[in-house]
Protein 1
Amino acid sequence: MLTEPFAEAVAEAEKIIEGAPHVRTEQDLIEGYDYLAGSIRASLQLAWAYERDFPFFVSSTGPYTKLGLDNPDTLYYHAYLRDDAEYVVTGTRGSTADLSFQVLNGDYTPASSPDSLTAFDDRALDIDADGRFEIRFGPGKAGPNYVTLGPGSAMLVVREVYSDWTSERAGRIRIHRADRLGAAPPPRDRDTLVKRYGVAGKLLLSRLRTFLVFPEWHYLTLPVNTLTEPRTTPGGLATQYSAVGHYDLTDDEVMVITVPAAPPDVAPYQGFQLGSMWYISLDYINHQTSLSRDQARIDPDGVIRYVVSERDPGLANWVERTGHSRGYLQLRWQRLTRDLTPTDGPTAEVLPFDQLPEALPYHAEQRVTPKEWAGRIAARQAAVADRMLG
């Protein structure tokens, strides 16, 4: 049967979910099955998008195809490449806080992360007064708006990062192989489909195994309920820093994370999020499980104080755990104009829920009413719906 390899991979994937080391409760398992459904959808999409001669951008991750502690503030796209061909990327720069490009020499595997061969943001491009640009990626010599593809170049990743979900808008972008525009790929045959179903199965299993071990490399060896200093993101963008950690809290505890609000001329984007033990974002549409700098309420002393809690503290910067007693913490700064130092980074304190008012110097200024909170959630829901159609 043509789909049998993929069906076998799905059955094996279910066993991987059921055997994940962090599964303790029925809810953990239910979330794992939901994560599996998104991974199945994504793997089929990626297998059918593997077109290096007639490439197109696809969404790498989204609200229903999550992986790799996806950033709620980011739209991710990617296309596949050959290192000996030339590609043309054209588009219009939107108003997002950041637009960046990265060339990888492969994909993530359970044994390693791909190497980042090239990484830059749109400051490196010549963009006209209307925001239009054209970039060429190929084996030629680097120059204005021309990026040399190093040996092994296999994937182009594009990120558009929102800080203000309600007002910023993504631009437009497309890709084609320079010598194939106006031509057409050959029709698909049975052998091609057999291969694609097989590839989809391999992608599914690799995806699940990879991002179950990935946190072991970068998060779980750290002391619990702490965050690292700002550091360049491993395998990431040249102008991105992150601070990471993992938490383990009871429902009567809160974690207060204190971090300076980076000036926009230093970091146009700064954001914080929680992630589940499946190493994916929590529900950021219907709950406030992340905050960009524009969404956070900055205290008069220029500091952001996030309150990670299961119980509702009635505060603007409440970051909801949504029933997750354990999970991951991630701060990001992007499009930086200087290196960050420890003084730019976060501190974390765990305390009883009832002591929160005394621990926050501007507690009164942070208060929100239930009606105001509902308005914040409604704005998230509307903004994501607009963004996903953009």
Note: The chain has a mean pLDDT of 94.
Protein 2
Amino acid sequence: MKIEAIILSVGDELLIGQTLDTNAHWLSQELDKLGVSIKKRITLPDQEQQMLDALSVSVEGADIVIITGGLGPTKDDKTVKCLAKYFGVKLVLNQMALSHIKAMLQKRGRSLKPSHIKQVELPENAVLLQNNVGTASGMWFESNNTVIISLPGVPYEMRHIMAEVGFNKIKSSFRLPIILHKHINTYGVGESQIAAIIHDWELKLPVHIKLAYLPGLGEVQLRLSLIGSAQEQLAMEAHNKVQELVELLGDVVYSVDNESLECVIGKYLAHNNLTITMAESCTGGYLSHLITSVPGCSRYFLGSIIAYQNEIKIQKLGVSEATIANHGAVSAETVEEMANQVKIKFGSDIGLATSGVAGPSGGSPQKPVGTIWIACAMGNKIKSKKLQLTDDRAKNIPLTAKAVLNLLRLEFLSQ
């Protein structure tokens, strides 16, 4: 049986973008691990009626409702009063919470203030979820077969309460299913094309397996989500479905372990004792950044040259002046020489190169903005490819870097 949760995040600062709602993000991840499905995440202002309306609707539509924020001692903190009003109960001094705050303040050499007393006046039907790292108490309620959990908005306090007591109470209160996710990463084929390839396969998925498409820059991640009660059975089903997808999609799949393209490349290089260098123009070091973001890259990455100006391409890389004069810096001939020359200069097994018009200016009718050439030199073979990307510089740089890594990956597959 599916157990569903709704997360209500309270605070004007969340709505105006002053504060990022990391609480809902973290709770979603952790609840998913428990087997709880997230039905909705709602952000609310510090307004009593909106909070009451959202709470009423949520209780009717979920097994668990988690509220974060609004438990402080100031006038804009309205969650406690809203909960009391929703349940039709009084606020009473919670002696356990009071004792905890007194002990905490004494340990810190501070005195009890009226604001602290206000924070331990809780709805009389609340079950205390003790906050050992702060003064705002977590609370647990039960209403019409729905659990309502109220938590502080301060992230480290909220996480502490849930890790210490909240998740354990959820596990003991519900018979939770197992939720298993598998991620298949693809590159170079659009979402609609993938959907067309696997259309018949997707139609045959059983009801307990869901497929989601998560498109990114140049790539699409497919997420298989399985829900059930038997871990081993789900794991076997997931493995079989992933293998079926790989067979259908072929070499556009670069990872079934949710690894980045640069990580996949790094593992191949390390496993085969290969070294790599880069000559970057339009990517300005971004390609090297991706490679060096992988721990252990010193085993295979020797270095790079950012040859942005033509003079640097000629003087430092050794690209022929005639090549640039006859074909231009953005050409197959130039980028192939760049890849080969950086490989020779560093003594690496592989050389990668990029050169293009990243934008937003610098284009021409023959070579408009987004015209990029990439190349891979490996052994005695040099492979180049033309890309026609966007007019957005911020997109073109990472798209180019990923494209040249994928070019190398395909070369590995062809060996």
Note: The chain has three domains: 3-173, 178-255, 261-414.
